[in-house]
TrEMBL record, chains A, B, C, D:
<dbReference type="InterPro" id="IPR055170">
    <property type="entry name" value="GFO_IDH_MocA-like_dom"/>
</dbReference>
<feature type="domain" description="Gfo/Idh/MocA-like oxidoreductase N-terminal">
    <location>
        <begin position="4"/>
        <end position="129"/>
    </location>
</feature>
<dbReference type="InterPro" id="IPR036291">
    <property type="entry name" value="NAD(P)-bd_dom_sf"/>
</dbReference>
<dbReference type="Pfam" id="PF22725">
    <property type="entry name" value="GFO_IDH_MocA_C3"/>
</dbReference>
<dbReference type="InterPro" id="IPR000683">
    <property type="entry name" value="Gfo/Idh/MocA-like_OxRdtase_N"/>
</dbReference>
<dbReference type="Pfam" id="PF01408">
    <property type="entry name" value="GFO_IDH_MocA"/>
</dbReference>
<dbReference type="InterPro" id="IPR050463">
    <property type="entry name" value="Gfo/Idh/MocA_oxidrdct_glycsds"/>
</dbReference>
<keyword id="KW-0560">Oxidoreductase</keyword>
<feature type="domain" description="GFO/IDH/MocA-like oxidoreductase">
    <location>
        <begin position="140"/>
        <end position="285"/>
    </location>
</feature>
<protein>
    <submittedName>
        <fullName>Oxidoreductase</fullName>
    </submittedName>
</protein>
Length: 385, 385, 385, 385
């Protein structure tokens, strides 16, 4: 099988999740190329070497520009914080590399527009890794909605709730600094939910938002120790939190639905709870990422007196992605969404077709998120252009 | 035991729920007066007579003014649609009757202010029946919050979802007409949720809202056939729906919390689902009215590795109201909240103390709801005065 | 409306639940007679008087024989511990009184057979109050099974779990003494589950059982303080527990299904958790009394990929008993099962038809329970005769 | 890192799950040897070759005896149906190979005893893959019980429910033939539950059981098409089902607890639902494999009025195995239990210590299962020797 050489930039939480995906994709899916873990790239040589050895990356680089210059790399996998995405993506696209890029796409939609233009000009495939589209239960929801099972949609209600920074002594990691992250949960979490809303419901036309910061100062963080939603305080001072801690939005959709979003890192007891409810004229669907193998489905077409929300355990052979895994009832987990993304990405490369979501989708998401920040500042509704 | 003569106005859904409460309060609670179902009042004599006979109301009146003139009535129970509340309440208060009034309090906060002034001037007790405060699980939540069990509150997230008008052929009942109802779910459902937010979290300082009507015209309804969330179409034409079908709000609280509200009659599969989530610095509490005997509670004080949302079945003897009912695990239902209200109301009369929520609380609720409607129209944040 | 004079014997937990039922039945149901709370009977005059006053029983008696002699009593409501059932029931039946009898029916099936013979000879109506048949969700399950919705039944799996005696200092109440109770959870709890199995699945042909006592001695109890699953220790000594603390059974049904039962008072965290699962050739149904308004339903007839257990909230107008109560989504509670029983009982008296379950059903239950005790002793399977 | 050469026998459902485990163990865990997928062995060359290529097994063999003769193999991974386990295991042990053996261990406990003797004599490590011990939530339950969090155990209540053969046209696969499988769910499913009971509660002293076959004849199956709980009918006749379809047991434990087991392939709607409840003097724990990242925990030590079953999402860093995976709230799946087993197995080889469960545990399980079959036949309680 022809090989597909991957160069990855970033080796923390996402670096691991992506490495695992590149290694496993061909074991469970029939894909046209064999992904090769060719070069891992990061700034800190020691931890990079350890990562590369663990995961079998053949070589390492500490300068991402050198990685991009290499002729033997087919795909650049961007697993860095978002403030580096644009520069890397554009350089890589210009060098003819296909792009597998972590979310959120960029710091601004303007930046993202430029990224997309470069990709189009270079003719490379660009994939934006909003991995939750590839949760089988969510892909099933998409199919059900497309099949008309819940009719016309009236309501989208989403929340993405975490609690990893409720401790005031949690340090000032990059995620809490505007110059590195652009925003807090609005970028990190609502980007996922807006992507899902675009995917499942439709385009958003206006946004009314409210944001809030609950803790203004935090201990400075030890650099390099910030992966995996954990971090260590450096012990020598405090710094300003410059992003919001919570971001809420109300929206209108082009198709007449209304929607709400709530993203927070201050919901004690919620670890990674992305939940949504969709109500339509013929039924309803709800989902909770902490029980990601399940989908709740209500149908008005069930007989009178026998209607109720049913728990679909999305592990049947005919559910999306599942025939590649285990028998019904044998659940899969978070990491599998990355494997699905890698498999679909390689398949798209093989057939020369596009894969969704891509940078154009990323731009649309960022425009909604930007409208949200603007609305929160100006305290009025903002149209999404 | 001294008797307390009740005169009720209205005999549909709320008329039944209140009658049941007046009859049962003394059976399960030790209250200082025996409520007597003295006079039932309504416009349609035949159905009124049937109601009165069924429930043991000793007499009937078809003109509420005559009821209020009677010397033998101690309490006026207002169980009519809201457009009648102000006139009845003020007349009754002037006549020295204590008031047990259904929610929402009135058509406007200005109207409600006048109601309150009259009550104060007359010295009568005024109770506004936001009955959900008296769900044992919610009263337990209040106690837990007051005891500091979840610390300072960051988030309030509420939804009140129903589906009784998703059918486009559901007729144009009074609840769908602005001149009779003032608003749709914003008045009917969000009034409950704002009351609970005031009760459990604190005062709201500003509101940003979005409302939506999904269906503009409906068949005209048969008059008099509109109780119990059911109705019959008259068969001779269509009329304009003049209230919203869904109302969403984002709010700030005085104490620094942020909140969201979502109220709709278009959530297929949800019958009477009032749910809320409260996240604080030390824990969290969530509730769902369709499982109203339960409360979910998360505590950061639990040992590391043993933390999780626990289901409190609020039927223990030491839970609010429960010692008057059945052994642990033997659940109660919707109607019991009215019995609790009746018992507390009679107790308050006995001791000469106030009972909450009262008309002042109703004014505060209406101001938030009005700010919501204004925000939805003007598409900007509105301060609650 | 013609009156139906009730005489009740017993005034503790069941006395209250029955009194409430007699008072409320006519308010919510159209029944042919008006139950009158005529005479309450009990041994302790002071607490009896208090009870009678609270609930409006017109008169009291401390000797149940005198009650039965009265000409003005139509119905004897037996709300005593089971060791008194037979004597009372037979005397009352001989006096021509209709019988509304608490469960379990008697101390032995032989005793129960005699009771039934006397009733038949006297021509009185005999009702055995296994009230859970009249939980709307369970009556709905019955209807669904009768309609063939789950096909032929393969499995019945039931548990009735409580925890009110896990504290070793909980005193030796009558429920823990063989001469007063005959058995522990086998009589008290499994009687309910066997009744439901007979109702929903069919007749049981053989039983294999295991029983266990976890605590052999307990403090003696203050007499008269044993209602409502609570009790006080007398403080002057210990006594032998002479019933089992847990009773488990495996059974075969006549129709080819297999079943299991598990009843215990030692399941910490379970207050009144009666749960069952039924699996058939076309679907499945499960139930949990702590969420008694809900029924879980799985259908193999749902489309492939869209199958799952759905939560039926058994509060729709077309669900059993519900049209007499509140709109959909407004739940009812434990006490309502007694009201349903009272309404159906009065209706049966009015039409001169039988009501189920009756003493014949009680005999069938006791035979299964006796086979269980025998099996547990002999450690072998026992046929139910 | 020193390599550990694996030879696997069997390449269906378990072959895939094991291959995945051997490949991933070193990526997520620090283990002393690098497992090498050296030789895959199976009878059907074409599908074997396809399997080996997919998973990267370096070589293939169609005769397991030749595989065992090879000097370069360290571990024999037995992923065949159970009727082949004994012969393979004994040959491999005699050849000095360490054993990683699928469950159930063997056809009989006598056979298993011989297997253990050979292993002991050869000094090889023997692991029996009851993989559910290595579900993080179950390992957490073990730790909690060991820490005394639920006190002395009173009750174990387990069920393992599937529905893959409810269709009468599902063919006669090897799992339904006594000479190949020895028994039905008693071997396949109850072996897991008995293992967990031994692990979490203690030794079982006697068994009372009931088994049932619901369908006696099925279409003959196409050979070789029976993996993954699916199969194809051959289309040329029917054959006798010679195992039970359901197996229920009641047991006593040495430590005074009582237990129940229910295993079936006829529970429509249940795909792979292994659930258990454990009640102790200080609390309770429940688990459901279809939500395998969660554990329900009740503690009597929680404050009065604040007690309830809490959902532990077993994805915290300090939960067993989790620090090797993803941040809290990012769930894992079925396949991870095999990776944990592989990692622990390799670690045990590195340190020269034993790993549990082993063949001795397998013997204990089989003795309970055999007592169950005997009890079901003789209809009496059987002591476990």
């Amino acid at each position: 099988m022809k090989q597909l050489n991957i160069g990855i930039i970033g080796y923390k939480f996402m670096g691991r999740a992506h490495s695992n995906a590149w290694k496993k994709a061909s074991l469970f899916f029939d894909i046209p190329f064999q992904p090769v873990l060719k070069v891992a790239c990061g700034r800190h040589r020691d931890s990079l070497m350890e990562f590369a050895k663990k995961w079998g990356w053949e070589e390492t680089e500490t300068d991402w520009r050198r990685l991009i210059e290499r002729d033997d790399i087919d795909v650049i996998d961007i697993a860095t914080p978002q403030h580096l995405h644009a520069e890397i993506a554009m350089a890589a696209a210009k060098a003819g590399k296909h792009l597998f890029c972590e979310k959120p796409l960029a710091m601004t939609s303007a930046e993202a527009e430029t990224m997309l233009q470069v990709c189009k000009h270079s003719g490379v495939t660009h994939y934006l890794n909003h991995n939750y589209r590839r949760v089988p239960a969510i892909a099933l929801a998409k199919r059900m909605i497309a099949d008309g099972l819940i009719g016309n949609i009236y309501h989208w209600r989403a929340a993405y709730q975490q609690d990893w920074i409720t401790d005031p002594n949690f340090p000032l990691t990059w995620q809490l600094q505007r110059e590195l992250a652009q925003a807090g949960p609005q970028w990190d979490l609502n980007s996922h939910c807006v992507d899902l809303a675009h995917y499942l419901v439709g385009q958003i036309t206006d946004v009314t938002a409210l944001t809030r910061r609950f803790i203004d100062q935090r201990p400075l963080a030890v650099e390099g120790a910030m992966g995996n939603l954990k971090a260590e305080a450096a012990g020598y001072g405090m710094g300003e939190v410059t992003v919001e801690d919570a971001a809420l939005m109300l929206v209108n959709f082009e198709n007449g639905a209304v929607g709400s979003f709530e993203a927070t890192r201050f919901a004690n007891g919620r670890k990674n709870k992305l939940s949504f409810e969709i109500y339509g004229s013929e039924g309803a669907i709800t989902f909770d990422l902490e029980r990601m193998n399940e989908l709740q489905y209500f149908s008005t077409r069930d007989p009178d007196g026998l209607r109720g929300f049913r728990t679909l355990l999305a592990t049947d052979e005919n559910h999306p992605y599942i025939k590649h895994w285990w028998p019904a009832g044998h659940i899969i987990g978070y990491e599998h969404t990355f494997i699905h993304a890698a498999a679909d990405f390689v398949t798209a490369l093989g057939s020369g077709t596009a894969i969704k979501p891509d940078f154009a989708d990323g731009i649309a998401i960022l425009k909604v998120l930007e409208a949200g920040l603007k609305s929160a500042t100006e305290r009025k509704t903002i149209r999404v252009e």
